[in-house]
Automatic annotation (TrEMBL):
Record-level GO cellular component terms: cytosol
GO molecular function, a single term: FMN binding
Identification of the protein by name: NAD(P)H-dependent FMN reductase
Residue runs in coiled coils: none
InterPro entries, alphabetized: Flavoprotein-like_sf, FMN_Rdtase-like_dom, NAD(P)H-dep_reductase
Residues annotated as domain NADPH-dependent FMN reductase-like: 3-140
Length: 178
């Protein structure tokens, strides 16, 4: 049994990426999963001046959580084709603590948005940079038109085709981290 850490890169109290992460985490039975809400990890906006003051305790705590996990499930939100400033700031702090903060981590990478592209720009951006920090992306999935394809009442995927695709991605990821 592997330890999986799951979180969304959004700081919205109504984050659809967090809902997607929770759903995917609930579908994996063979491993120990901890779902984090990154809103609990407050950090100042990264700058060299802030770094000179020392690393935030929350950044060190999150790095420890990541280092203790065997694998990660991450759903990234999208602002203007990339991560939102909140998650970019977290990645900046983590990469300054340890350039290879994702070393040895197998990652299921996802994104969603209300639009038809499902946060694809942010997903592609993450696919490009996470390996630079040592992460290995095992599977990725863009979930389009969240509100049309996910039932908020039952917290389940309502579109059959998307559900089948997502279940295949989850299955492949779960088998790859054994």
């Amino acid at each position: 049994m592997k330890k999986i850490l799951a979180f969304a890169g959004s700081n919205s109290s109504t984050s659809i990426n967090h809902k997607l992460v929770k759903y995917v985490a609930s579908e994996i039975e063979e491993h120990e999963i901890m779902v984090l809400n990154l809103n609990s990890y407050t950090m100042p906006m990264y700058s060299e001046d802030e770094e000179k003051k020392g690393f935030p305790a929350m950044a060190m705590g999150l790095k420890k959580e990541i280092s203790e996990a065997d694998a990660l499930i991450i759903s990234v939100n999208e602002h203007n084709g990339s991560f939102g400033a909140f998650f970019k700031n977290i990645v900046d702090w983590l990469s300054r603590l340890d350039r290879n903060f994702l070393e040895g981590k197998k990652i299921l990478l996802m994104s969603t948005s209300p639009g038809k592209r499902g946060g694809l720009g942010s997903l592609e951006y993450a696919k490009g940079i996470f390996p630079r920090f040592g992460g290995e992306i095992i599977e990725s999935f863009s979930f389009p038109s969240f509100y049309d394809n996910f039932s908020m009442e039952s917290d389940t995927v309502s579109d059959e085709t998307l559900l089948l695709g997502l279940k295949q991605v989850i299955s492949t990821f779960a088998h790859q981290i054994k």
